[in-house]
Design brief:
490 residues, 19 helices
């Protein structure tokens, strides 16, 4: 291979988007100035390998994030409700209040993140704060103190997931996002699986140590772990392609920026323009598609509400707390494995809708099985079907990123707004699972079936809309003799 620098700011070829008269734009956009066909694939492969390793750390953060928000369900099995004198639906309110913080902070946080040069520092700081809140939860003496801390936890945790998804969209092309989004969101499934194992060990092994009950140790240990991971994240998480990075060579840095330019829609003028005020937010608010997808995702999240009560559903089979927590792991492990296969297949085929509808329908099968019997083995089998529906969430988020890929600021706002609206599903969902409906939870499963059907119907209508947009674009290009431009993924 030639020893000549891959990216030469002084001598470039027009085939990568630069014109002979474009030298006055060198300070505005990165230009792939000299790339031979044999060299770019090598550099691109090296870039993606480095990036994937850092994105893998995002998965660890998401695992910890999910552990900190869901540990109350495990603590419930070892005296959490009794020690704080909870009555009626107070535990459900404790779960629900977390997501009120999510609704309030997701959009402002992502808008702020879009203007930052060091998202790694911002996300790491938020993580350290929510780790401290989790730790303090282990010391509370009253229900109301726990309620306030859970609300604050939601406010701070709100920064992470929409921020991480937006960060991925700043590095990966549209046909690469599905697998990477699956890699990120598998953190929730892995957390559901292994947080139950960790919780069972803590709850069984530390009860009474230093005078603390088992559920207090659960919050103390997991909060401390979160703070440790947050400190490491400062140096490991990637920033944006436009921010100089010590872990990338100049060639890789410039290629990273140029890849995003190439992936933008033909004729798009918003991708690299400076963001004025809150233009991205106002554009997202005025786009009906954002609201449509937000409602569709809200229904989907409501159908996935069983995840917040998975230890409770496992306990309905009659085993003790430790065994019930251990039984939670296998269904989520299978769900994690499935998400990678489905996401990769979705990227390869370019299809989104059927890769959303399919897993949701498999989940509906699980709900129907759980309704039909109280047999221990069959109900446990139903949990494996239910966890498959979480795969739809992965593909849905990728679809959102693909649909709003033409404007960076609007994409940041759209991702946050859609996630904020979806959080309403989490706010109401805890009340779908009152203890009085157990142990069969027939009414709860019926609600999950209904919300799954609503989400599928709204996604199908959205697919039809995008299909019409693609047909209109193709007709216009044909009439004007234009080359093929942007197409929505269906």
């Amino acid at each position: 291979m030639s020893d000549r620098p891959l990216l030469d700011a002084g001598n470039y070829s027009p085939q990568y988007g630069a014109s002979e008269s474009g030298s006055n734009n060198l300070n505005d956009t990165p230009i792939l100035s000299y790339i031979i066909e044999q060299s770019r694939p090598v550099v691109e492969k090296r870039l993606l390998r480095k990036l994937d390793l850092r994105v893998a750390f995002l998965v660890l953060i998401y695992i910890v994030n999910y552990m900190d928000r869901s540990n109350a369900a495990a603590a419930r099995l070892r005296g959490f409700e009794e020690d704080l004198n909870m009555k009626g639906n107070q535990f459900n309110t404790l779960i629900s209040i977390l997501y009120v913080g999510y609704v309030l902070m997701q959009a402002p946080s992502n808008i702020f993140l879009d203007r930052m040069k060091r998202p790694s520092l911002y996300l790491s700081s938020c993580m350290a704060i929510w780790g401290a809140i989790t730790l303090f939860t282990g010391t509370v003496r009253t229900y109301h103190a726990a309620l306030i801390l859970r609300f604050l936890l939601g406010l701070v945790e709100a920064a992470f997931f929409p921020g991480a998804v937006f960060l991925l969209s700043r590095w990966y092309k549209r046909n690469e996002l599905g697998l990477r989004t699956a890699l990120l969101t598998c953190g929730s499934s892995v957390s559901n699986a292994f947080s139950a194992l960790i919780a069972s060990g803590i709850l069984a092994g530390l009860d009474g140590t230093l005078g603390f009950t088992a559920w207090r140790w659960l919050f103390l240990v997991e909060g401390t772990l979160t703070i440790i991971v947050a400190v490491c994240a400062i140096w490991i998480l990637p920033d944006f392609p436009s921010t100089p990075s010590v872990w990338l060579s100049p060639d890789e840095q410039t290629l990273a920026k140029r890849r995003m330019e190439e992936d933008a829609a033909a004729g798009n003028e918003d991708q690299d323009k400076p963001v004025e005020g809150f233009s991205g937010l106002s554009e997202a608010l005025m786009d009906w598609r954002v609201w449509w997808l937000g409602v569709a995702l809200s229904f989907m999240i409501a159908s996935l509400s069983f995840g917040n009560f998975f230890p409770t559903l496992s306990a309905t089979m009659g085993y003790n707390a430790t065994i019930s927590l251990l039984l939670c792991a296998p269904p989520w492990i299978l769900g994690t494995a499935t998400s990678f296969f489905v996401a990769r297949h979705s990227d390869v085929t370019g299809d989104r809708f059927w890769h959303i509808a399919g897993p949701l329908l498999v989940g509906v099968v699980g709900f129907v099985i759980a309704i039909s019997t109280m047999n221990t083995a069959v109900r446990y089998l139903s949990l494996f079907f239910m966890t498959q529906s979480s795969v739809a969430y992965v593909i849905f988020l990728t679809w959102v990123l693909n649909t709003f890929s033409q404007s960076r600021s609007k994409r940041a706002a759209a991702v946050a707004l859609i996630n904020s609206m979806a959080t309403f599903g989490n706010i109401g969902a805890p009340y779908f699972w009152p203890s009085s409906w157990g142990p069969s939870y027939v009414n709860s499963y019926l609600i999950c079936i209904l919300t799954s059907a609503m989400s599928i119907a709204m996604c199908w209508a959205f697919r039809k809309h995008l299909s019409r947009c693609n047909e209109a674009a193709e007709a216009e290009e044909h009439a004007l003799g234009l080359p093929k431009g942007f197409r929505y993924l269906l």
